[in-house]
Amino acid sequence: MIRWQNLWRFIPLFGLMMLLLTGCGDDTISTLRPRGPVARDQLFLMKLSFGIMLLVVVVVFVLYLYVLVRFRKKKGEDIIPKQVEGSHTLEIIWTVVPIILLLILAVPTVKYTFQLLEDHRDNKDALPVKVTAHAFWWQFEYPTLGISTAQDLVIPTNKKIAFEITSADVKHSFWVPSLGGKMDTNPGLSNVFYLQADEVDTFKGKCAELCGASHALMDFKVKSLDAAAFDQWVADMKAPSTVPADAKAGETLFKDNCLSCHAVNAQGLGAGPNLNGFASRELVAGILPHNDKSLHEWISDPQSVKPGARMPAFGPTPIEPIPGSKALEEQQIQDIIKYLNTLTLK
Ligand SMILES: [Cu+2]
Fold first, then answer.
1. CA dist list (Å): 146 to 149, 220, 222, 265
2. Tens-digit pLDDT profile for residues 85-108
3. Fewest Cβ atoms closer than 10 Å to its Cβ: which of 9, 41, 172, 191?
């Protein structure tokens, strides 16, 4: 009786686990819902290893339960059973079967390990993209197209994206669960691999390596477009933007305070994200909704949004301003926001 009462105590725990696990279901960030060939191959490997493990567990448990029941000591039976020591047949079986199972697991694993690391940078049908991870943002360069962007990686569908990935500071890890497994970004080193998306969609990406205070905020997005829309995006990125007259004041302030880190042209790279086409991005700094309030918050005090962010603060009372911070007047911040809002793609 007492024992059963104890079991009831676990119900809240199970309830909590259920609640937590039901959270796992976002279509755009799940390895269990692969959206490209690489992720599909990797899911196959996961299913294969899981299947083999399940088989072993089931067989072992069935045998165990069978032996437990079959060879129970019966009532009135008090002889000591025959003691058996060593059995060649059994030993061969339990050595050979695991070897076979491991081979079944090893052959496809080794095959895919090499296949998925193929270098497609010189493949004419692939699109090379160079990824540089920064604490706490992502930079994407398209060497063959002469453009670069940040936070939102835009790719064509049904084309291999040949990645060359590295880090500008500490070790990060590039992970788009819907498209494929993680890949470390190491300072001073490049890792090469590829991913591919089936359809037009937006997938969430994450940094998967604890890299500092704002590691959990180091999100990015992958937008897949069909070939025509992708070409249009490239053309838009390259089209020179014109600044309307009422944003000129903001542009001047931007040049004086921000341009040293932020490029606003097709190819530009710097210590901060390229802001070319920034007004067309859905988020600010990869996490805040894109609106004037977020921009104001970010420019005034980036560290309050992303602790450890490497952008100076321009508001009057930043929490932990990094060198280069200086207080701009409220009107000046407003003017800069006005200017940033003109950086649209057509
Ligand atoms: Cu990181």
1. 11, 21, 19, 11
2. 889 999 999 999 999 999 999 999
3. 9
Is 0.70 topped by the overall pTM? Answer: yes
User: Whole-angstrom Cα distance, residue 333 to residue 293?
Assistant: 11
161-167 and 220-225 as β-strands: parallel, antiparallel, unpaired?
A: unpaired
Q: How far is the CA of 282 from the centre of ligand 1 (A)?
A: 21
Query: What CATH homologous superfamily does 24-67+88-238 map to?
Result: Cupredoxins -  blue copper proteins (2.60.40.420)
Fold matches, 24-67+88-238 and 245-340: yes
Element (H, E) at 224: strand 220-225
Length of the chain: 346
- Give the distance (Å) from ligand 1 centre to CA of residue 286: 13
Average pLDDT over residues 69-82: 86
C-alpha of residue 83 to centroid of ligand 1, in Å:
60
Question: Ligand 1 center to residue 228 CA distance, Å?
Answer: 32
Q: Are strands 220-225 and 152-156 parallel, antiparallel or unpaired?
A: parallel
Could you tell me the pLDDT band of residue 25, with boundaries at 50, 70 and 90? low
Q: Domain 245-340 maps to which CATH number in 3.30.470.20, 2.60.40.420, 3.40.50.980, 1.10.8.10?
A: 2.60.40.420
The pair of structure tokens assigned to 256 is: 């004086």
Task: Tell me the CA–centroid distance for residue 172 and ligand 1, in Å.
Answer: 4
Q: How far is the CA of 56 from the centre of ligand 1 (A)?
A: 38
Domain boundaries, the chain: 24-67+88-238, 245-340
- Distance (Å, whole) CA 249 – CA 127: 39
Q: State the distance from the centre of ligand 1 to the C-alpha of 182, rounded, in angstroms.
A: 12
Cα(8)–Cα(1) distance, integer angstroms: 11
CA of 138 to the centre of ligand 1 (A): 9
Ligand 1 centroid to residue 210 C-alpha, Å: 6
Q: Is 24's pLDDT higher than 80?
A: no
